[in-house]
Structure prediction request, 351 residues.
Amino acid sequence: MSEQLRNLDRWPEQETRGHRIPGSRYTAKEFMNQEWEGMWTKVWLLLGREAELPNPGDWQMEEVGPEEILMVRQKDGSVKAFYNVCQHRGNPLVSESKGTVLRRFVCKYHSWAFTPDGTLNFAPDKEDFPEGNPCGKVRLQELSCETFAGFIFVNMDPHCQSLQSYLGPIWDDWAARDIHTWRRTMANTMWLPCNWKIVLDNFNESYHVPTVHQGATPDTDRKAIRGHIDTYFKETQFDLSDEGHNRMVMKGGFSVGSTDAEGNILEPLASQLRYWEIDPEAFKGRPEATREALQQAKRRLGPERGYTHYDRIPDEQFTDAFHYTLFPNFAVSVWSDGFHFLRARPHRSYS
Ligand code: FES
Prediction:
């Protein structure tokens, strides 16, 4: 069992700076330009999931602001990232979001062809170029690319620090789990008419939860269910790493609404308890006690039900939500049985 996960005080204490954030950060073109030059092109960006590129030649193209970035699985199992730009006259090399290249990426403008490792190996009339045959010399422009926990990270800065250094304590938190083996079951992309930070701001706090999510359980007195079983912000542990990443640990992990006015356990907690052979009736009026009961039941029954990774997971993660916000744009909630994440990007129309 991971001591790193057990020691929730491991992240450094931070001073709250409390400076006011001007609205222009969300609306001003000048600030957006500064973000692009000083941030987006300097940070590690999560752009893909390794399981989406299982075989050599599999590729995926992702947009970040005005850039298109191509990630390609290599023969040796690594992943390389390139700008989606033909090095002849700058035509986009691919126009779809994903695919498999058997031998070469062939540009649709003049048929220059690049192998999956980015090397030009065919150009029509190659002997006519005054600088000499470009094949074997010209390469796609490559970006720094590293994988961790099954995610593909890319950095546009050729002088960037390592991904491990960038992630700081998140590296240790996630390395203790089997996240790299998890598969994506659902994906959805939305275009919203707002600045990208609006979305991240929302996922960076749980202050709104008792208000916004109260509607799902209108019978509930939220003050009666605060005891380690909801996402009420006063029960949440907030951490900020020196690297600028955030961690929120929400005990219970269930939203407000675990009991009705009489103290009966409500859904979805009731179904969770039954699935793990716990009678919700036995916890009437004391929902906070279900947290430890669930942890013990999962520990006891998990392995025989096929949850073979449970022996590497701390008790807290059987019930609690570990929510991370990786600077600048990636928010993820991790439980013992899966995760869901959200990624915000600047609009493509930005230029
Ligand atoms: S621009 Fe790609 S081959 Fe000419």
About this structure: The chain has a mean pLDDT of 86. Residues 65 and 350 are 6 Å apart (CA to CA). The chain has two domains: 3-9+189-343, 43-181.
